[in-house]
Amino acid sequence: MSRVRASLIAALLALPALCGCGGKAAPEPPSLAPAALAAVGQTPGTDRTKLAAAIDALFTGRAEDESRAVIVLRDGRMVAERYAPGYHENTRFISWSMAKTVTAVMIGMLIADGRLRLDEPVPVAAWQRPGDPRGEITLRQLLQMRSGLRHTEAGDPIYQSSEVRMLFLDGRDDMARWAESQPLEAEPGRKWEYSSATSVILADIAATVLTPSRDPVVRRNAVADYLRSRLFEPTGMKSALPEFDRAGTLIGGSLIHATARDWAKFGEFLRNGGAVKGAQLVPRSWIAFMTAPNPRNPGYGAQTWLNRPQAESGKPEFPGAPASTFAAQGHLGQYVLVAPREKLTVVRLGRTDEDKLLPVRERIARIVALYAAE
Q: What is the pTM of this model?
């Protein structure tokens, strides 16, 4: 009897080992570096460890995924902030095409001031000659990238791309004149085509209505003062530094510099419908227009990207994030992403080649998903 009891005990002791042979144990999740957890506040409004891991993935992914700054704001409160070595809260980061969204806000303010009208032909002198079909282009069409002008973004070869020619080659001294000199390739309103040159035309229109002068210094000061007094100072974006070309035109499609914190403030301004601390800087209806699908691309509003199927790919920009999400986006992976229902603003700044950005956008979407599940 004792031998039977001993055999049973031995068999029971061996049972865990035998069970372990039937399959692999679930791997332990990788431990987070202290810097990853330190970047997240104690009460971020979601699981702190999961948020730290989601942000960490933006900094520790592939070598080509060079994130330099990430900020997460929940309901106006900063819950996470992290920088790569060599960058910090006082570093000004280039906007690239995030500037387009700033330009659209400026146009909205001028419309609210009664200086421009959305559905009337725009005041571009080069288009006013009798019979010029470009004279029918409206502000709405420019804002929604439906002008019909022959602007070829990211063309091949690259030195023939419209944005390269305008920014660095034959158009660099007077970018608006170059952009406005291009002929139509489609009837205005009929075709969606992303275009940095279009945003420079919008910036030129703003300068034209703010001052009659063609003096570059006067034009530059008029636009800089307007942006500072109407947008940058009220939102607290004190670091914002816009660039102008030699003709005094704001490079409104590409070149505004600001800290990551100030880009986050811009996102919060958009999330709050154009208001800051109860003060309406631009009509709420204007932000609604900027973030509404346009007739030729449901994934694009007015100088602002929407997380809806894109006209060309049929896929959203941030897979997994809610359709209500929208973003100011810039070359090489600059993002100010706003998820209104989640009361969330996420800023990611860095340098990642365009053809490798999808994993970066997917990781940003995972951050949003943490709050969408709450």
A: 0.91
